């Protein structure tokens, strides 16, 4: 599932994509007259930007296989197993 950032902080807008708007760039550098600033991203920021690639979000072939299996009755959903997994996750988080 892809979650899009809707930050209201103008300094954070565009950071994940590795770019900043000219106005934010000029505001950050203190210049406002035609000069352009370059933004150098840290390796962590570049990694986060790569994770933002929409092609890697969903494996459509697997999604279709699961849909087909559900529709044909081959894949059975076990609610108690899902509940047990959720409870185990919560227990791990509370440790």
Description:
The protein is mainly α and 95 residues long. It has one domain (22-94). Helices cover 48% and strands 0% of the residues. The protein contains four helices and no strands. The longest helix has 16 residues, at 79-94. The model is unreliable at 16-27 (pLDDT under 50). Residues 1-41 are annotated as: Disordered.
Would you summarize the structure shown here?
Residues 21-38 have a biased composition (Low complexity). This protein is mainly α and 95 residues long. Helix content is 48%, strand content 0%.
Task: Count up the helices.
Answer: 4
Strand content: under 5%
Order of helices and strands: HHHH
Which structural class should the secondary elements be placed in? mainly alpha
The unreliable regions are 16-27
Q: What Rg do the Cα atoms give?
A: 22 Å
Main beta sheet: none
Keywords: Bacterial flagellum biogenesis, Cell projection, Cilium, Flagellum, Repressor, Transcription, Transcription regulation
InterPro entries: Anti-sigma-28_factor_FlgM_sf, FlgM, FlgM_C
Biased composition (Polar residues): 1-11
Organism: Castellaniella daejeonensis
């Amino acid at each position: 599932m892809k979650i899009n950032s809707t930050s209201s902080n103008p300094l954070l807008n565009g950071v994940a994509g590795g770019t900043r708007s000219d106005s934010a760039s000029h505001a950050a550098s203190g210049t406002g007259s035609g000069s352009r600033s370059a933004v150098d991203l840290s390796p962590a920021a570049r990694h986060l930007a790569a994770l933002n690639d929409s092609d890697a979000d969903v494996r459509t072939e697997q999604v279709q296989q699961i849909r087909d299996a559900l529709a044909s009755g081959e894949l059975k959903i076990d609610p108690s197993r899902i509940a047990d997994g959720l409870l185990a996750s919560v227990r791990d988080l509370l440790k």
